[in-house]
Design a protein that fits this description.
Elements (H helix, E strand, L loop, with lengths): L1 E4 L2 E4 L10 H26 L3 H6 L1 E8 L6 E2 L1 H11 L3 E17 L2 E14 L6 E14 L5 E15 L2 H7 L1
Parallel strand pairs: 3-8
Antiparallel strand pairs: 1-2, 3-4, 5-6, 6-7, 7-8
């Protein structure tokens, strides 16, 4: 991850930045892949309407913070919320990119990524939702070796947009 210090762009102090051995460098690449997979896993599970899969991406005491919603703490609560939200969707499409990963330790990483999402709802009178912004995720490597979200915050903009069906129904 890059940062600006005294008007100079430099690599942030990454735990793995000075990996002297080949084994340590390979471990960093593998850990980075697993951490990046967390965000892709979340997007795929939301789009597939898989609440259990969404919840599985979080640590047991994981926390999720989204604009306009109270913070949720605990995998069970996050899974329960998505179990209520996802069945309301007709379709969903999430795109994630520009991921930057900073390893604070061999067991903890910070991730910054951009996202765009389009959600279409089953209810005829519900407006589609287009959202875009950034995810800030703290990932932790748990005892089983899997990386999971410890905290997940999204920042961005939500726009409710009339679909063709909504516009025609009002005509």
């Amino acid at each position: 991850m890059k940062e600006i210090e005294q008007d100079v762009l430099r690599t942030a102090g990454d735990y793995f930045a000075e990996s002297p051995s080949l084994e340590e460098r390979v471990a960093r690449i593998e850990a980075r892949d697993r951490v990046e997979e967390l965000l892709a896993h979340y997007a795929r599970c939301v789009d597939a309407q898989d609440a259990q899969g969404v919840g599985a991406a979080f640590a047991e005491d994981g926390e999720m913070c989204n604009p306009g919603m109270p913070a949720l703490k605990g995998r069970a609560r996050i899974t329960k919320l998505y179990g209520k939200l996802l069945p309301e969707l007709h379709t969903s499409s999430h795109l994630i990119g520009a991921q930057q990963v900073l390893f604070v330790s061999s067991e903890r990483a910070l991730v910054h990524a951009a996202f765009q999402a389009w959600d279409s709802y089953k209810a005829d009178d519900a407006l589609d939702c287009f959202s875009f912004g950034f995810y800030e995720v703290e990932a932790v490597r748990e005892a089983d070796g899997a990386w999971r979200r410890s905290t997940s915050t999204s920042r961005g903009s939500l726009r409710r947009l009339p679909t063709v069906a909504c516009v025609m129904a009002r005509a």
